[in-house]
Amino acid sequence: MVGGTFDPLHDGHKRLLDRSFALAGPGGQVVIGLTTDSFASKKIHPIRPFTVRKEELEHYIADSCLQSSCRIEPLNDRFGSALDEDFDAIVVSEETLPVAVEINKLRKEKNLRKVDIHQISCVLAEDGRWISSTRIYRGEIDVHGHLMQ
Amino acid sequence: MVGGTFDPLHDGHKRLLDRSFALAGPGGQVVIGLTTDSFASKKIHPIRPFTVRKEELEHYIADSCLQSSCRIEPLNDRFGSALDEDFDAIVVSEETLPVAVEINKLRKEKNLRKVDIHQISCVLAEDGRWISSTRIYRGEIDVHGHLMQ
Lengths: 149, 149
Prior knowledge:
- Chain A contains 5 helices and 5 strands.
- Chain A has helices at 11-24, 37-40, 50-64, 97-109, 133-137; strands at residues 2-4, 29-35, 69-75, 89-93, 116-120.
- The A-B interface holds A 19, 94, 97, 101, 104, 113-122, 124 and B 19, 94, 97, 101, 104, 113-122, 124.
- Strand 5 of chain A pairs antiparallel with strand 5 (116-120) of chain B, so a sheet runs across the interface.
């Protein structure tokens, strides 16, 4: 399981997705929680609509010929179906590691088994700082972390 | 990179090692930090000597036909060479996740790139509690988590 807003889909997101598919492996399934417009609206910058973001995700996955099956589901809160479903691992960024730790705590309280946590280190932009959607929105960098004029 | 005292080598350790080798993959290298007798002596129960623990590790790795190369190095503190070497990922248990987070913090301060963190959920014994060396030493469970009489 992996989650995000993915707007725009940048190299940090791609690293997160690629790793999720690698961990699921052939025959495995990746569940991508994609934030709903309502949940994503809490961000400090405008977000493109769910359907547009979903389509971009689907194109990336199709183009990458990733070998696991994949399901994109709407994410209405930080946890989505991670507190209910049976799955093996959650893949997070440095920013969302605490959410994964909380998910395991809550799963244990519900007598569900804890899942493995894979924390991918963030992809750095040219200036050595993280690539983030906020920085892209501000026009500081592009989706690959190149500095803009 | 992965580390531990591995005394005795139980199913939780084996899960940690198997995953480390799976993540390193064929052609990759796993560095196993094995606590020195001096560092391990801080544990609340007696620990077998470094050489004995190292031999048990080597036997497990040889018997498992794990495909990555492997180096066992002495671990004199919580960090070992993780603050100096260039490597990709650290594999930890639920107990040692905070150490991995601290390693990344210290690496950043040294201008070294952060590494990915893989936190394996603990293997449960028959009674639903973690398998741990302390419980084995106390005679509660065996290395596979079976309850002892």
